[in-house]
Amino acid sequence: ETEFGTRMIRADERLRAVAAESEAAGHLEVLPGTPLLSVDRISFTYGERPVEVRRGLYLTVDHHYRNRLG
Fold first, then answer.
1. CA–CA separation, 17 vs 65, rounded Å?
2. Could you give the C-alpha distances from 60 to 17, 28, 57, 64, in angstroms and in order?
3. pLDDT at 62 (0 to 100)
4. pTM of the model
5. Which of 12, 14, 20, 52 could hold 25 in an S-S bridge, CB 3.0 to 4.6 Å?
6. Beta-carbon neighbour count of residue 28 at 10 Å?
7. How far apart (Å, rounded) are the C-alpha atoms in residues 34 and 6?
8. What is the pLDDT of residues 32-63, one digit of tens each?
9. Closest by alpha carbon to 8, among 40, 39, 49, 38?
10. Residue 9 pLDDT more than 90?
């Protein structure tokens, strides 16, 4: 928000379990097929204009995903 002067007012996220494909497995240093949490996000500013599209892949063996709203 500070760098680009654009305020994010809401985001939609979709979570699902996926198996690590070869490229992601290499980056995360896990074997292909390892269970991951996939999070797809689209963030919006005023006028329902999208300002961010992001996909994250998370290894949840030692961590968990937490989302606090409100």
1. 12
2. 10, 11, 10, 5
3. 86
4. 0.75
5. 20
6. 14
7. 37
8. 999 999 999 999 999 999 999 999 999 988 87
9. 49
10. yes
How far is it, in rounded angstroms, from Cα 57 to Cα 20? 9
Pair of tokens at residue 61: 């063996």
* Residue tagged 């996909």 (tokens): 55
DSSP per-residue string spanning the chain: -TTT-----EEEEEEEEEEPPHHHHHHHTS-TT-EEEEEEEEEEEGGGEEEEEEEEEE--SS--------
- The residues, any chain, with a CB within 8 Å of residue 9's CB and separated by 6 or more, are 44, 45, 46
pLDDT for res 67 = 78
